[in-house]
Amino acid sequence: MPICRRTRNNSLLTVTSHLIDELPCGVVYTDERQAIRFVNRVAEALLGIHRNRVLGMPAGAFFTRYVAPHLTGEGMHPEEIADALRSGRDVPATPLLVTGTSGRGCRAEYASRIVGDGALGGARLDTYTLPGAQERRASSGVDRDLFASMLENAPYALLLVDADGKCLYANRTFTGITAYTTEDVPDLARWFARAHPNPAYRTRVLETWDEQIIRNRVSASFSVVCRDGRIREIEIRATELDYGMHLLTLLDVTERTAVAEQLVQTAAELQAVIDAFPDLYLRVNFDGTILDFRMGEATDLEVAPQFLLGRRLRDILPEETALTLQTAIVRVLDADAPASLEFALPITGGQRSFEARLVPLRERQLMVILRDITERRCAEEELRRYREHLEELVQERTAELEAANQQLRRLLHYIEMTERKAAEDSLRQCDAICPDDSIAPEDGVITTDLAGEIVLINAVAEDLTGFSREEATGRTIDDVVVLIGEDSRDLFAAGAAEKEAVIAAKDGSHRTVILAGEPVLDADGAAIGFILTLRAIR
After folding, report:
1. Planar angle of CA 261, 263, 265, nearest 5 degrees
2. pLDDT tens profile 164-207
3. Which H or E run includes 343?
4. Is the pTM value of this prediction over 0.85?
5. Where is coiled-coil annotated (predicted)?
6. For residue 344, which of 317, 309, 314 has the smallest C-alpha distance?
7. If you write DSSP's letter for every residue of 377-408 in order, what string do you get?
8. Which of 269, 383, 435, 472 has the maximal Cβ count within 10 Å?
């Protein structure tokens, strides 16, 4: 058959697809990967399929689902045909009994042949021929009933327009999509008025129509107001016929347009997210080859991003780092779970730290997200040093406080012991002087530290000096016990010997007292303070 001759240009079917659609036999083209690439309209009608639903389907699955059920058993067995398809052999003409979209059964012949070699090696053409189709084409053309059924049940909306713009024919799909008939839109002028009621938009449609659809034969999409008030996105393509007529093909792309717009929106949002972060996004395959990249506006690279494409990580990274990343890639692909790692790279101006997050994708590919974390690492190191310094300060301060507390506890302990001793001495003296149990004189007691600052003063000493406990505490002994003509510190040097002296009270009055000074010793015998005893002479 003419359509099965060998072809050397893989784009021939694309360029002449509208011609193949006009052939009186069904044609299915399978590429060298054994995937369905093209189905003409006759094949759609005979097999009862829609081409958009089978494009990309594996040839074996297509044969099993749509061809094998129609085999009559008079020719090759289905398993023999499937084996021929798998092994790349031609399939001779085999009878079929097909129903198609018309609902009427008819016989046809199925054949499959390998097309070309070289770049087209392994591609094949499947043909579905009606008996006597070539003879009818040479004499009276395609069978009118079949042709009418094909037009009426075509998956595309068809509108036939003559040279004067009159609408001669609209198929069932046209009415199904737009709800219009040729009575509603008898000519193109009425079509434009009803499908595009907005004058401004209609003007843009007419400009595009003349320039793009009629002159350049390029499809265009428009928003169409249907007869029932719905607004649909319709893709229109014009095919010029004899006598100035045009066959308009209309395809409802509303859902496709919505999906495309959503994809554009999603892509824009994703790009905005990428631009907001100074990260480098690499799509790599299982062996570390960089397939694609994305980068934020703030990403700072020392090489041109295009330099990365097609190169392996081991070709652009140090050997140890590349080995670490490759090991992580294998681990992520095997576990099908994300992972992250950190590494350092020598960069101009010093070494920088990076974090790599690996996310598994389809077909053994990964997304590697690289982020420069040098500043974070520096901040963490600075925080660590600050924390260590703070801990050292806390330890030093704690040691100082502990030492001060120990000294204070010792001082208070020996003050307590000294006062107890002084009280006992006073009682013994009272027993000696007043055997008849009369009231014994009380002594004033002032306790100081080694520097001479008053730590404790009792009530008798408060009365003798005129200073309250709050006023005296923290003052030096010279400020509280003011000796007339003498230095109170000499009393401490004198040990425990008593001495008569005159002191000046806070109010300026003079009082004669017996003074005695005695050191306070710790457990090791070291002096930690002094006790001064004052006894008034009655």
Report:
1. 70
2. 889 988 999 999 999 999 999 999 999 999 999 999 999 999 99
3. strand 339-347
4. no
5. 376-421
6. 317
7. HHHHHHHHHHHHHHHHHHHHHHHHHHHHHHHH
8. 472
